Amino acid sequence: MPTIAPRVQLRYGDTVLDAGSGGVFEHRNPYTGEVQARIPLAGAAEIDAAVELAAAQADSWRRWTPEARRDVLTRFAELLIEHRQDFVDLQALDGGTPLHFGRRIIDNSVSWARYYAGWCDKLSGELISTLDTREYFSYTAPEPYGVVGIIVTWNGPVISLGMKVVPALAAGNCVVVKPSEFTPFSPDLFAQLLREAGVPQGVCTILTGGPEAGAALVRHPKVAKVSFTGGPVAARQIMHTCADQLKPAVLELGGKTASLVFPDAGDLEAVANRAVRDCIGVLAGQGCAVPSRLIVHEDIYDEMVERVTAIAATYKMGDPFDPEVKVGPLINAAAVERVCGMLDRVRRDDAGRIVLGGNKAGGDLADRNFVEPTIIVDVDPDHEIAQTEIFGPVLLIFEFSTDDEAVALANSTPYGLGANIQSTNLTRVHRLAERLNAGGVYVNGARQNLPHTPFGGVGISGYGREGGRAGIDEFLRYKTVSIIEPE
Ligand code: NAD
Q1: What is the mean pLDDT of the segment spanning 411-418?
Q2: Which residue among 222, 224, 280, 481 sits deepest, i.e. has the most Cβ atoms within 10 Å of its Cβ?
Q3: Claim: this prediction has a pTM higher than 0.70
């Protein structure tokens, strides 16, 4: 169990740097709070060099045979598996990810890598016939963009990289990636394994940096498309830059997922277990798609509140390396302050009744970045706590009596990443799925980000898709070739 953070360097082409033009980030272990590494940050100079290398490789990489690209990316997926435990440990050092969830992230990333490796030799256009006196012969040909800029955030970077980098490469693009300085270790290993798998120098460069490095990547004129995962402030800045250059972007942003629970949901203990596991048990609630709003039918409301509260009370907080721990630290002290500020305002505004937790953790964890698993009932649906992302281990429970009320509550925020339904009545499920404002609707515990299904948001949750054919199409543009006989 490596509890010592590895050294991170900036690597692009043959260049290896211990210091970058973006300065140095003192990385604090999210659990102990101690500085565990000094991370060299890329700035505009290193980003520019990496984009130039990528641009120089673009023509060669897109002309690799699809089979050769597939074999390299398949080998990469195998290397991810071989290094599973390394990644699990690194994620605990990166962002305080508990072991049980760290394993899920890696297994998921492997699935995405395998899935998109398999697309390399299956990309094709279509033949289009038109009725015309002079016969047209038209076809479309998928082409890569050239250089794609990828920016990911700190919550589970390895899955974000699997969802973005592998399909971008499979489509024949070169990529320059900027992970968050808060989680530098696992993306660094990801980059090393791409090299080891045989991805040529310059085709994929991963450079850790701060927001300035991200901004430099977006505005680089040789970056033809941007794929971003993060928050709304950065997303708006990115869109402004993209608008100036008329550059397309995929935006995977935040969410406020509602989970509707009906009396016919089946085993209510299993439903309650999932409700806690998928919110509080996912990175202490720091997930874009965590179902943070449980919307429960009045007939089972009291029972569900009781079950959910009892289960959440058993969730152990602590050292992410402790296999029993289900709730790790928040990413940093500022995050704890933000979440506790929201909880204070719930009390101040009488906007809900806190039935479990509601405070910064005490005892042995008092001087660390922990917030107690928290359940809030009788929530004011217009309050900030019900309208914005919390990004902490907080589950809100609402009550409804009719389907219309349930839909209205679920659709009452500007987000639209996912929505969950717990019901065995499939007629109801289909009817409600159509009415929920969300990029995806998941029923009875169906997993959200399966590689073969598109994932993404509507509303302020962003646009564009990752997963399935739609996900690789984001990294392709279709050229139309039309031919007629000369007159
Ligand atoms: P953030 O938006 O502040 O930063 C994300 C990344 O963007 C970082 O690498 C950062 O350095 C970079 N960045 C910041 N400003 C930039 C700029 N002006 N130009 C270019 N790059 C810039 O991240 P955050 O708000 O702390 O991240 C959490 C958010 O990410 C949450 O809202 C969460 O829901 C969302 N998220 C979404 C998904 C998804 O798939 N939909 C997945 C994970 C996280």
Answers
A1: 98
A2: 280
A3: yes
Q: What are phi and psi of 252, to 5 degrees?
A: -105, 105
Q: Is residue 21 part of a domain?
A: yes
- The one-letter amino acid at 309: T
If phi over 0 gives left and psi between -120 and 50 gives alpha, with beta otherwise, what is residue 400? beta
Atom of ligand 1 nearest to the CA of 209: 11
Catalytic residue flag (residue 252): yes
The average confidence (pLDDT) of the chain is 97
Residue 2 has pLDDT above 60, yes or no: no
Phi and psi of 375, rounded to 5°?
Answer: -120, 130
- pLDDT at residue number 322: 97
Burial of 200 (0-12, 13-18, 19+ CB in 10 A): middle
pLDDT digits (tens, 9 = 90+) for 430-483: 999 999 999 999 999 999 989 999 999 999 999 999 999 999 999 999 999 999
Pocket lined around ligand 1, Cβ cut-off 6 Å: 151, 153, 155, 178, 180, 210-211, 214-215, 218, 229-231, 234, 237-238, 252-255, 288, 389, 417
- Asked whether residue 192 falls in the same domain as residue 239, the answer is yes
Residues 383 and 475 in one domain: no
Q: Are residues 405 and 423 in the same domain?
A: yes
293 and 215 assigned to the same domain: no
Are residue 381 and residue 242 in the same domain, yes or no? no
- Token pair recorded at residue 271: 């439903």
Structure tokens at 261: 């629970």
Looking at the structure, tell me whether residues 249 and 264 fall in a common domain: no
Find tokens 């002290």 and name the residue.
333
Out of 46, 181, 252, 466, which one is annotated catalytic? 252
Q: What is the domain-level CATH number for residue 424?
A: 3.40.309.10
Cα–Cα dist 455/252, whole Å: 9
Told to judge if 288 belongs to the known catalytic residues of this protein, a careful annotator would answer yes
User: How does pLDDT run across 228-276, given as a tens digit for each residue?
Assistant: 999 999 999 999 999 999 999 999 999 999 999 999 999 999 999 999 9
Domain carrying residue 397: 258-448
CB 338 within 8 A of CB 332: no
Q: Whose CA is nearest to atom 30 of ligand 1?
A: 230
> What digits encode the pLDDT tens for the residues 8-51?
999 999 999 999 999 999 999 999 999 999 999 999 999 999 99
Counted domains in the chain: 2
Q: Which residues contact 224 (CB under 8 A, 6 or more apart)?
A: 145, 146, 147, 148, 247
DSSP-based three-state secondary structure for 208: coil
Answer yes or no: is 455 within a domain.
no
Residue with tokens 């089979």: 67
